[in-house]
Amino acid sequence: MIYVRYLADLHVHSHFSRATSDHCRPRPLAAAAARKGLTVIGTGDFTHAGWRAELDAELVPAEDGLYRLREAGRDASEAQAPGDAGRYGDGDGHGYGHGYGDGDGDAHGHGDGQRVRQSDGTRRANDARATAREGMRAGAPADVRFLVTGEISCIYKQDGRTRKIHHVVLVPSLDAAARISAALEARGANLEADGRPIIGLDSRTLLALVLDTEPEAALIPAHIWTPHFSLFGANSGFDTLEECFGDLAGEITAYETGLSSDPPMNWRLSALDRLTLVSNSDAHSPDRLGREAIEFEAPLSYQGIVEALRGKGGRVAGTIEFYPEEGKYHYDGHRACGVCWHPNETLAAGGVCPVCGRPVTIGVLHRVAELADRPEGFRPAGANPYTSLVSLDEIVAEALGAGKASKHVRETTDKLLDALGPEIPLLRETPLEDVAAVAGPVVAEAVRRVRHGEVSYRPGYDGEYGKLTIFRPEERRELSGQAALFGFALSGAGRSDAMAPRATDRHHRHRGADLGMEGALDGMTEDAAAQEPELELAAPRAVARQLNLAIVGSSLPETAPSWLEGLNASQQQAVTARKGPVIVTAGPGTGKTRTLVQRIAFLLHEGVAPETITAITFTHRAADEMRTRLESTVGRGAERVHVGTFHRFCAEVIGEALGAPPLVLDEREAGVLAAEAAASVAAARGTKRIAAPAEAFSRLKSRGLLPGDPGVPSALAEPYRRYQELLAAAGAYDYDDLLLAALEMVQNDKRVSRVARERATHLLVDEFQDVNPVQYQLVRTLAGDGRNLFVIGDPDQAIYAFRGADRRFFAQLSADFPSATHIRLTVNYRSSDTVVRAANALMPAANATAARPGGQLVRYVAVDAPREEPRAVVREIERLVGGTGMLAADRHGQEHPTRQFSLGEIAVLFRTSRQADPIEQALLAEGIPYRSLGQRAVLATPAVREALDILRCVDRPTDLRFLIALRDTRFNPGAEALGMLKARAATGAATGPAAAWAGNQNVPLAEVAAALVREDCLPPDARVRIKALLDLLAELGALAPTATAADLLLRAAPPEAAASSRALRQLVRAAQDRSLSEFLFRLATGQDADHESREDLARPGEGVTLLTMHAAKGLEFPAVILVGLADGIVPWKDSLDGEALEEERRLFYVAVTRAAEELVLIGPPTEGASENAARSQSQSQGHSGPQLRSQSGSRCQSYSRSRFIGELPSDILKLIDTAADTDKAARRKTLAQQHRLF
What we know:
Layout: E1 4-9, H1 26-36, E2 40-42, H2 49-58, E3 59-61, E4 67-69, H3 118-138, E5 145-147, E6 149-158, E7 161-170, H4 174-186, E8 198-199, H5 203-213, E9 218-221, H6 241-245, E10 254-256, H7 263-266, E11 276-278, E12 293-298, H8 302-310, E13 315-322, E14 332-334, E15 339-341, H9 343-348, H10 364-371, E16 386-389, H11 392-400, H12 407-420, H13 423-429, H14 432-439, H15 441-451, E17 456-458, E18 467-469, H16 473-481, H17 483-489, H18 496-499, H19 526-530, H20 540-546, H21 569-576, E19 582-586, H22 592-605, E20 613-617, H23 620-634, E21 642-645, H24 646-658, E22 663-664, H25 667-685, H26 693-702, H27 714-730, E23 732-733, H28 735-748, H29 750-759, E24 762-765, H30 773-783, E25 789-793, H31 809-816, E26 821-825, E27 827-832, H32 833-842, E28 849-852, E29 858-862, H33 869-881, H34 886-893, E30 906-910, H35 916-926, E31 930-933, H36 935-939, H37 942-955, H38 959-967, H39 975-987, H40 995-998, H41 1005-1014, H42 1020-1039, H43 1045-1052, H44 1057-1060, H45 1062-1070, H46 1076-1085, E32 1092-1093, E33 1104-1108, E34 1117-1122, ...
Parallel strand pairs: 1-2, 2-5, 6-8, 10-11, 13-16, 19-25, 19-26, 20-21, 20-24, 22-23, 24-25, 27-28, 29-35, 29-36, 30-33, 30-34, 31-33, 34-35
Antiparallel strand pairs: 1-12, 3-4, 6-7, 7-9, 12-13, 14-15, 17-18, 31-32
Helix pairs in contact: 2-4, 3-12, 11-12, 11-15, 12-14, 14-15, 21-22, 22-23, 24-28, 24-29, 25-26, 25-27, 28-29, 28-30, 32-47, 33-34, 33-35, 37-38, 37-42, 37-43, 38-39, 41-42, 43-45
């Protein structure tokens, strides 16, 4: 095995990443790498399919696991000969790879285990430099190797804090990159929006996914100290590797220092000793390559590099470092306020900015000291050497007193590289007299000072790079005019090895800027540096608390409370009330679910048998949550309490009567039957078919009306009757039939009534304001005299009138039971005082009080047109999370949010589902993970619909289901075969060969189809398709008793859908650990809040939640963005007066009260919004807030603000006018300007 010495930069980005140069393509990157002196560079961004395709077109395999540029006329299998001395080795295990020594001219080799003689090492280094220089002129980019890498950003919530961690992933091939990308997409990741994708998985899950998919992959925590996006970052990181990666922490073998720290800073943490320290550039443009790099002594291959990182073969011989003071986050401070502090100054000020009064951003130097368990200057045994450098163009610019982009600097830099070879070896070891001969004495002196660390900086802080200073202006003038001075500086330094600094002593370099004053940049001496006080943080967690860096929302595990512990007086009264019915009015955030659960605990404490308690709610999600809370509260016995939805309870009642579970049709199947009923009646009458018959029949059933009842419109009576006949013929129930049939059985079947009443001896009903007439009658029937009835809800949150719900049943129950106990819960434990005040303005009668005083002002973001709303949503999300990328983090960090939210803590609410599409597109474009609540869009996607059509046939085969599976899936046999089967299903009088079976109505249609196939009387293609369906049904039927619904979904779906359909992947996640029957029942009886696309809430992935205001009912989020707040949308255009308008008001009230901490409203412009800054200041001084523009005053008459906005108190509003937002200047930056920030 040949060990060679070479430089590598493995953290690079492509032009598919945000804020990167368009030149980040294979050939420009290879040219820049050769110019820098890098042998291996990372490809970056392997998760992006477009970049992988570009790499595949531009690169060919080279050494094992590495790639090189494709060259015309060169055989793709040809690779560099292993014995090419001076580049990759000498055949005996000795070599350097472009001749990079360790800074003192020594040479190293591993071929025979012996150190090469000094003279040989010097000769080889000189030969290698000569070869490298010649290579530059001969097109050395062809010798640069690419290793497939990518960076992945994880944003998630763990232990009460938002975590934002970046990871560099190394893989051995483009094929492995594709497989890992597919696995990420299967977990809902959006990989197309950004070369460095944002995903909602936690770091441990990401690591497990990577290693499970490709065991030879390696994951390196990136720039581990960066405040916003790193393992140890002050704002969103952890204190230990184990906290982040859990039981897989041992799989992490290397870490990346980042630009704002260097090896001595990292040596202060003993926990890092077992890991390999590496440094990379994180380059967003080719010219930034190599500003940090890794020096390997290892075989030139993927395995050689990875084994060196793991410490199992070869080694990392050292690193090239950025001066950490020049990094963007070295010091503490506030960029917007111009405050830049050494950590000692931060501690002295209590961590509070003297300008704005908010906590300052904690920098890397401070964070290192907080976690350090060793003093400054400590050097572990065996620590690798390192060399701190400044880019050549920056050195030349300093020497010439010109800008880096100036023509003089560019020409001088090119001249040096052409004459002396690649940049990094030039800066490390080229004799200074050679530099002087090419570029003059001042440039040579600048190189000398950089080598010896004789530089000063204004340190970087809060996202702003530090400023390098090599010369004072007068020094530059003196050096330019006095060659004698330069000659004195070079005295005794003519040889390369004598001039090169010893990297092992570099941690004592000057740190003049550490005084925290700009004046300290001049004349800093070695003695002054030595006298600098060491930063001591004796109690890191105490310091974190002092600086307001404590984990937000975390708490120690609480002891399980009794059934009264922690309840306020009104809640205790509700829980322990003995005289029923108990009617509890519970406003938003008042602990409604907790009160109901504690009521059950009280009943069990009183000796009530759990089998006689039934708790009913409206969604499967709410029922699952109630069941979970009950189990954690009471422990044993909780599983015997009946908890479920109205439809679950009614299905069980019907099942008791039938002796088997009822066949429940879902919305799609019921729609098919309803359309058939309407069509047959219209054909018989010669009239036009009624529109949306399924919805019309559902509305009638929710009111308890049957086909022959008065109140059924005459146009609907006959189609409705025909529909019920078709249901009866199929032996099936639709969604609404479950309620009607159960009510009829409870009222008229003594045996069923007895069982149902025993099960619901103690009946508790959640969200009582949402019951419809059938549900109310069912509750009344089961409740008997009402003594054991407990209902809880809020008439002010009644928003489902369109489904037949009637809030007046709250009052009706009181009228039916005049002696009922009434209790009102008014203390809101969810929302801040400002949110509660906004809610009270909409519903004054609620008279709620906030348990948490204060809170952020409600932001009203004014936009000029609906098309601007998605952009505003993205900007607000970035503000709330503190930025999803480096640029956004720097920009939004200046707004000083009270805390950073995770993506999963943010919800975007809108009035109609159609508003979701442009918001989804905006989030996809920005690479922001999201999840969209609501099942309809998911179930309507072709792949999902086809899989479900097939699985219904597997679960409960019927002729209707078989026909749907044939007609609407890939197995459609054509019109002729379908016509035969339809005739058999409709009349039992089939034509053609199927007639032999038509007389027997008990023969399933699937058997008729099988007979048609056997008789060979169908067109060949139709016969093949029907047989394929029958075979698949038989296969799935054999698996169904033991397989999960998730597995069956994947087998039933079209083969290509598993990889391409996000909706199918979401449904598969929802189907995990459920039987097929249970899964299909939940689909048939679920509400919008029971399903979501992209991610399942119980899974580790996180994303912003998108949902309608209706679907948000019963949910809560730390931060809520309400979008589309224009008249005609909120309130809806058809609901602008009377009770309809009041329901719209209640809907907006529900939406507002979903917010716990921050509420953002986005809508049309307001009066004087451009003067927001001045008025915000007046608000903070106690003056009245801005007046919102009237509807007629809008800049766009067709886009005017919601009338409800005008009812909110102006003193709790902060107006943001995007047209006047200074942030627009940042958004107008060119890509070239943006990537220079990196």
